[in-house]
Write a structure and sequence with these properties.
This protein has 417 residues and is of the alpha+beta class. The chain folds into two domains: 5-63 and 103-270 and 305-412, Outer membrane efflux proteins (OEP); 68-99 and 274-303, no CATH class. Helix content is 68%, strand content 10%. The chain has helices spanning 5-14, 16-19, 29-39, 41-61, 104-170, 176-211, 235-245, 247-269, 306-354, 358-371, 377-412, and strands at 24-27, 67-72, 75-76, 81-82, 91-99, 216-219, 274-281, 290-296. It has a four-stranded antiparallel β-sheet, with no helix packed on it.
Length: 417
């Protein structure tokens, strides 16, 4: 489908413009993905966030700490002694443990686990977005370099023609306006080339950031794999894939589950907790050496956590609306991506049918005939401009096809292509 040999020739002829003082990082799509997962700082931070949420699971499982209290008489007025805690003094000891009731610990642990799942899904969605940007930049880079290489070849050929014509114009053998016409065609094509070079620099900047490298990134496209983009999957199958794999949709479903669990947790907070304790008092109680077993529980007369329960119930309804909205969003994105892919395949097949090796043969023939003065300069320049526009359009259609395929992969979060 596409030809990597053009890029190898490009590096030989044109690479110094980009690679002066730099090494070249040659990557396939799989290699780029591996480097991205290993080095991208945003992904590293997202993984750390998942680990932090897992630590919260540990915290949620822990029991409240018991409390131990010691009381010592500060001043014994009868014996005139400070901190007297002997046999005739006063000291007391208390031990208290809070017993959580109403499944608070169970619900809190469940919330912590679901928060970890939410962080994991957030990381997966971040990876989906960044990998989509990575793949788009790699594919765009490939086809932009391919077009620049072809422009470069034609500019070199036109430059040699202009040099010869300039010499003839200086001798008065041809009109100077013919040289100006050729130079105008050269500048027009060179401006198009400059725009592509600016695009390539932007693509390189993003790729270096995504891959955490200072090298010039060169994408090694698999020619054989290019034909996969010509296949159009069934829309219903894409919809089902998206429903199963989209991390943002899973997160929307999980948000509803978290909201429902939060209702149970808020209701459990309305259940009073039991405080169980034991104490010893040497002389301060009803009699000497008093031992007590204590129980304590709040009386839920006024505060039964009504406001938080009501708020949690409303948040659950909001989460359900968000889930439904996300399903509609995903379905719409899949349909749009499928339609774009269908149109891109149609444009590609029509373009390839019209474009063939004969175009290059005709270009060489037109150039040869122009040098032999068999055709006019107007005919040659018109053909030259049309031919280069055609080359740019062919590469644009090829790039659009590949990008549409990546868009399908993105909206279903599954490697369809």
């Amino acid at each position: 489908m596409f030809h990597i040999k053009y890029l190898l020739a490009f590096l030989f002829l044109f690479g110094p413009v980009f690679c002066i003082g730099q090494d070249t990082l040659r990557v396939s799509m799989d290699t780029a993905d591996k480097i991205f997962l290993q080095k991208n700082l945003m992904m590293v931070a997202a993984q750390m966030n998942v680990d932090a949420q897992k630590a919260q699971e540990i915290q949620a499982r822990l029991y409240p700490n018991p409390q131990f209290t010691v009381g010592v008489n500060t001043y014994d007025s009868q014996n005139k002694k400070l901190f007297y805690a002997g046999s005739n003094g006063e000291k007391s000891f208390e031990f208290d443990q809070l017993i959580l009731l109403g499944s608070k610990r169970k619900n809190l642990t469940g919330l912590a686990k679901q928060n970890t799942q939410q962080a994991q899904l957030g990381m997966e969605d971040l990876m989906r977005n960044l990998k989509y940007q990575l793949h788009n930049d790699l594919l765009s880079l490939y086809f932009d370099l391919l077009t620049v290489h072809q422009y470069n070849q034609h500019l070199q050929k036109l430059d040699s023609i202009i040099t010869g014509y300039q010499e003839q114009a200086n001798k008065g053998n041809i009109a100077l306006k013919d040289v100006v016409r050729l130079k105008t065609a050269y500048m027009s094509l060179n401006n198009d080339r400059t725009e592509l070079l600016n695009n390539i620099e932007e693509e390189q900047k993003e790729l270096r950031l995504l891959l955490q490298t200072n090298q010039f990134v060169l994408f090694q496209f698999d020619d054989a794999a290019g034909s996969k983009y010509e296949q159009l999957p069934i829309l219903d199958s894409l919809q089902n894939l998206a429903l199963r794999h989209r991390s943002d949709l899973k997160e929307a479903v999980l948000n509803k589950s978290i909201a429902d669990l939060n209702i149970r947790y808020q209701k459990s907070l309305a259940v009073p907790d039991l405080s169980l304790g034991a104490s010893y008092d040497q002389r301060g109680g009803a009699f000497n050496n008093q031992y007590l077993l204590t129980f304590g529980i709040p009386l839920p007369f006024w505060n039964r956590n009504q406001g938080n329960i009501k708020s949690a119930q409303i948040q659950s309804k909001i989460a359900d609306v968000g889930r439904q909205q996300q399903q509609l969003t995903v379905s719409g994105e899949v349909t749009a991506a499928w339609s774009n892919m269908q149109r891109s395949i149609s444009d590609y097949l029509k373009t390839i049918k019209m474009y063939s090796a004969d175009f290059n043969t005709v270009f060489e023939g037109m150039t040869a005939n122009f040098l032999k003065r068999n055709i006019s300069i107007l005919e040659f320049v018109d053909f030259f401009e049309s031919y280069n526009s055609g080359i740019a359009e062919v590469n644009r259609v090829k790039k659009q096809l590949a990008l549409s395929g990546e868009s399908v992969n993105y909206v279903v979060e599954f490697p369809v292509y």
